[in-house]
Amino acid sequence: MENKQSDIERMKELVRLLNSASKAYYQEDREIMSNYEYDALSDELKELEERTGTVLADSPSIKVGYEAVDFLPKEDHPSPMLSLDKTKDREQLRAFIGEHKTLLSWKMDGLTIVLTYRNGELFKAVTRGNGITGEVVTNNARVFTNLPVRIPYTGELTLRGEAIITYSDFEKINAEIEDVDARYKNPRNLCSGSVRQLNNRITAARRVRFYAFALVSAEGVDFENSRQKQFEWLSSQGFEVVEYRVVVNGSALDPAMDYFAQAVKSNDFPSDGLVALYDDIAYGDSLGTTAKFPRNAYAFKWADETGTTRLISVEWSPSRTGLINPVAIFEPVELEGTTVSRASVHNVSIVKELQLGIGDMIDVYKANMIIPQISKNHTCSGTLEIPDTCPACGGHTKIRAENDAESLYCENPACPAKKIKSFALFVSRDAMNIDGLSEATLEKLIAHGFIHEFADLFSLDKHKEEISHMDGFGEKSCDNLLQNIERARETTAARVIYALGIPGVGSANARLLCRHFDQKIDELRKADAEEIGSIESIGPVIAGNVVSYFAREENNRSLDRLLAEVHIEEEDEPEDKPLAGLTFVITGSVDHFSNRSELKAKIESLGGKVTGSVTKKTNYLINNDTSSGSSKNKKAAELGIPVISEEQFIAMIP
Q1: Same domain for 510 and 467?
Q2: Backbone φ and ψ of 563, nearest 5°
Q3: Beta bridge partners of 210
Q4: Which CATH number goes with the domain that contains 11?
Q5: CATH code of the domain in which 565 resides
Q6: How far is CA 8 from CA 58, 207, 214, in A?
Q7: 29, 154, 308, 451: least surrounded by Cβ within 10 Å?
Q8: Structure confidence by residue, pLDDT tens digits, 24-72
Q9: How does pLDDT run across 187-215, given as a tens digit for each residue?
Q10: pLDDT digits over 466-477, tens only?
Q11: What share of the chain is helix, strand, coil (3-state, %, to 5)?
């Protein structure tokens, strides 16, 4: 087994070297090894794969097929996946171990996955879900960077493990996202979203890793009644097993605990504690379970690191529901290796319970080593004033008691903070296309009173100094945002009309309206319902919505102020409409367009229509995987509708 394990370690090294060389050559236009050396290493890898019967997911010897699905099917687990009982007390953990040989390992903070292999191939991958039912993510598991897609064992194997994203990969992914508010909060959330993607091309780009922590069953293999032997066997099959230490009994716990306590400070992967598992399989199984926990394992949670600091202020942040959330701002303090200076206080009840006041000395910690919280107030001055006006609109506020907790709400129905969705639509790609304005950023700008209506976005340069010092911003990100806003001043009539958020007027209908009125917004807002309703594909309902919108003086004044800030460009209209009268549905990933929205815009610019579902009115379904068994492909086959690839679509147009 040792020779086989060393072969697999060599395979991992070869995969890393070969993939690095390929990336340098094909993506970075540089050569880090000769063709001769590359071929020699490639031959060595193939020989080792044949010898061991193991092929790693990121091996250059295989070509990963990417696939998009319409949904993730759900599946019940054969038996419930229980949580572990836990403690933060080392002595309690020592008592659990007692005189039993125990494996002490990392409790990784990611997404638990159950894998099944049949005939040496990955057959199925299912998330833990709620412990009873999980989601089938087999396509995504195939592209985990370190997961073997083929193993030498050909019986049925079931194992459990944790899918994670390392801190270093997490930081690289976030660094590529310019909008600070669109960045991911922590590796666990990113991993959960990555594993549950409908398109496994996205999963592959996130570099998800898998670490086995339990072997459920392997037909015909004798593990000599030892969990440690199971771990060693899984390693010999090519799996990366969670790092563990053997503890012979409770008295020998301290050296292993001290090792993990030191290592957690520099780990590149998220971990929220340790797991103790009895080595004796039969003994552990004989203990059974409680209603909630198995009795053969126990979790140890790290005690939260706390820091004492001074409360500087409390920022009251309005949201789209009218709820005004208190956020504590305090002198920066180091926690779990990062600097924190703010924490949500959640509601008025907690403000009162902590007896907060500006200048108080408070203890803060990171719940689960992630979310900053206030744990204690040493001063308890209780002098913090609850605002009676909303910081976004100046309207009256009211404290409401809901679910045994008091919270502060803005009473003004016209508060701009409640219009966050309309602002989000206004800045979206198909509307004014202002990059860098996520909903979270818009909420901050509204909360600071910088924007009340659409036109205000084009005057944000007046608040550059304040924005540069807002949480999550800096001078560079502020400059980028202001540049994006300047670029958005050059726009089209259709973008403006869509951006207004008139019910029923999507981007396609906005183009139809503007085309009918020769791109003249003033002509559109003076038109009556009869004329608007006569436009093909518009109809009386949408016409009524348009007329009602422009009948309100407030909307017209707001639009006038917006039009004073922008320059309407003329849209080039094709002389003919080669796709006129044709209806398309788009599914799966695209290769020749940057995204499906761009392909949709292309179809609409040529007179075609794009809908979300396949019906008898559909003329073509565009799917690069024309032979897939997706629900839309099946529906198209039932209705006799052609399924075409992007290449076939491109061949249709001039």
Answers
A1: no
A2: -65, -25
A3: 163
A4: 1.10.287
A5: 1.10.150.20
A6: 13, 20, 20
A7: 29
A8: 654 544 557 666 677 678 878 888 888 888 888 778 776 545 555 566 8
A9: 888 888 889 888 888 888 899 999 999 99
A10: 888 887 788 888
A11: 40, 25, 40
Same domain, 287 and 392: no
Q: How many CB atoms lie within 10 A of CB 378?
A: 9
**Active site amino acids:** 107
- What's the rounded mean pLDDT across residues 103-111? 94
Alpha-carbon gap, residue 279 to 296, rounded angstroms: 9
Give the β-pairing of 111-118 and 121-127.
antiparallel
**C-alpha dihedral sign at 635, 638, 639, 642:** positive
Structure token pair of residue 98: 């007692």
Please report where in the chains the tokens 């099944």 appear, as a residue.
Answer: 116
- If asked whether residues 340 and 478 sit together in one domain, one would say no
Whether the CB-CB separation of 250 and 94 falls below 8 Å is answered with: yes
Distance CA 414, CA 383 (A): 31
Strand partners, 334: 339
Percent of the chain scored above 70 by pLDDT? 91
Does the model's pTM come out above 0.85?
A: no
Q: Which residue has the tokens 């801190």?
A: 167
User: In terms of domains, do 180 and 317 share one?
Assistant: no
Of 358, 380, 410, the residue at which a domain comes to its end is 410
Tokens linked to 298? 């126990």
Block residue for tokens 């109809």: 539
Domain membership of residue 381 as a residue range: 306-410
CA nearest to 408, candidates 329, 353, 349: 349
Gap between the Cα atoms of 558 and 536, Å rounded: 29
